[in-house]
Amino acid sequence: MTDYFALLDEPRRPWLDAGGLKEKFLALSAQAHPDRQHTAPDADRHAAGRQFSELNTAYNCLRDSRERIRHLLELECGARPKDIERVPQELLDYFATVGGLCRSVDGFLVERSQATSPILKVQLFERGLEWTAKINLLLKSIADRREALETELKTMNTAWESATPRDKPVLERLEAILRLLGYYSRWTAQLQERNAQLAI
User: Fold this and answer.
1) Alpha helix segments (H runs only) across the chain
2) Which of 4, 63, 128, 152 fits 58 for a cystine, CB–CB 3.0-4.6 Å?
3) Closest Cα to residue 187, out of 153, 130, 143, 132?
4) Is the confidence at residue 199, as pLDDT, over 70?
5) What is the mean pLDDT of residues 12-23?
6) How far apart, in whole angstroms, are the C-alpha atoms of residue 150 and residue 156?
7) Average pLDDT, integer, range 137-148
């Protein structure tokens, strides 16, 4: 397995500075860009293309907190973290709230698609704005929770670097954050999809 941290000359840790990571990626990818190899022999051009592709894959992995944590845990533990379908206790209320809102919006969208009266369409438009406001409020709440996890990851760097071999509680908390980020990503996508449908 390729170590994307090593490929981009970054230390293995839970949080990385996005600006510094981007600078390293741009510098390395500029050297390996296939356009710089247009007069080189075929073998060199293909090698540069593979290296450029691998750098892109590494950057896309490490810039995303969820993917970075998954990769870090895989490198440290020798296997991908298992996907657990059990909802963490701290998310049970959110799970019900997001699911309920999505079902309500779906019902409204069906109702709106069947409306033929111009007066009813105006009323439904106003109700659609109310649903959009509710979705945006929930999206903001999820974004705030994501931001809190990003802050926690940043503070975990110190504990991570001093834990050798890696402490079980640190690994367990990283796995928990990985799962939380997974739920937040899925819920954000579901809510954004409903927002897009409401805007049509």
Assistant:
1) 4-7, 18-32, 42-63, 65-77, 92-114, 118-162, 168-199
2) 4
3) 143
4) yes
5) 95
6) 10
7) 97
CATH code assigned to 4-63:
1.10.287.110
Cβ contacts of 173 within 8 Å, gap of 6 or more? 156
Element (H, E) at 89: none
**Are residues 12 and 75 in contact, defined by beta-carbon separation less than 8 angstroms?**
yes
How would you class 178 by CB atoms within 10 Å of its CB: exposed for 0-12, middle for 13-18, buried for 19 or more? buried
d(CA 166, CA 76): 8
Closest CA to 167 of 56, 63, 14: 14
Query: 157-163 long-range CB contacts below 8 Å, 24 or more apart?
Result: 157/13, 157/14, 157/15, 160/13, 160/14, 161/11, 161/13
Of 132, 150, 141, nearest in space to 192 by CA: 132
Asked whether residue 39 carries a pLDDT value surpassing 80, the answer given is no
- Residue type for position 141: S
User: What are the angstrom distances between the C-alpha of 24 and each of 37, 49, 53, 59, 197?
Assistant: 20, 18, 15, 9, 39
Identity of residue 139: L
pLDDT of res. 84: 63
Compute how many other C-beta atoms are within 10 angstroms of the C-beta atom of residue 58.
24
